[in-house]
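Forum: Protein Structure Q&A
Topic: Joint prediction for protein chains with partners

I've read a bunch of threads here and the consensus seems to be that you should model interacting components together rather than docking separate models afterwards. I'd like to see that in practice. Below is the full input, 355 residues plus whatever partners are listed. Could one of the regulars post the assembled result?
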Amino acid sequence: MFMNSEFRSPMDDEIDAVAQSMTAASPSAALRSGVRARIAGRAGGHVLRWSLGIAVAAAVIVLAIVWPDREATSDAPGSRASVAELVPPAAADRSIEPGPIQTPVVAGRGWPGEPDRVRQTNAELLPGGPVVSVAPLAVEPLADLEPLRLNGIEIQTLTVETLSLEPLSLQ
Amino acid sequence: VTDEELVLLARQGDTSAFDQLVVRHQATVYRAALAALRVPEDAEDVAQEAFVRAWSTLPRFRGEASFKTWLLTIAWNRAINRRRLRMNWWRRTAPLTDRLTLVASSDAPDEDLRSRELRAHIGRAIEGLTPKLRDALLLSQSGEYAYDEIGAMLSIPEGTVKWRVSEARRKVRQRLAALGYVHE
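Posted by a regular:
Agreed with the consensus. Here's the joint model:
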């Protein structure tokens, strides 16, 4: 196979000389300056992308904090979020215990078209019944219970069905 | 300062160290791209892309091959990709033979006509080789690369590089013989 590589014709010198001339050129200064500019641009691009990423992350965090709170505090009757969305499981479990709801702030609105039934109060539930009593807002939570929180934000308002529908299913 | 030392600095974000690597290897990379593309502007574009690519992938360079070989492989792959794209476009727009030029045929006044004609024929014969043979011949004659480096660039064994160079010469001689050029 390498017989050919051992054999060298006199014409090969001419061939090699022409082949050599076909790549005998040097790059212009633009090559180096172009590389430098693009690398600098790339580094700048990284900074830009990092900044953009941080800004987007911050915006997402702010939305995550603000948006659920807006939903919960909206006065529009039809704007209630579902129980599953608003109430963490632990809080929902607490709300089905008969007796005073031992959370610092509980409130609710009626179904669309109905008047609000509970607002800014502590409420008492009876087994199998709706909200039956309204007490003034409990300023201090009971020592052994944490305020209801959703996404780290204390919930100021819950819809009334959160409180009343669960006890109805007890019996 | 060795390439390895500059690479270490460049990996830590030292752009001036990388700039030194560019200065050191720009001609080598450019000539490899020129061998593949045959158009100086395209070769310069590809060389630039190769350096930028090398900079961005420097953290992944494991040092199994030399920096030069690694860089040349990047440049060669980019050049071949561009050549494929260009050839596809070219085939649709113009016959290849209309576009081929002999890059650097000597025009020395004392060179006789027959010699210039011979060189022109050799140039055309080289251009007419298959890309595999032509690449091996041009890279080997550029004076920039050892056979093992060419093998790494082309992803073929060193022995195959040598065979292709030899075969390329034989094909050119054959073509010249058909034109009446026979050296004893």
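Chain A touches chain B through 35 residues (CB under 8 Å).
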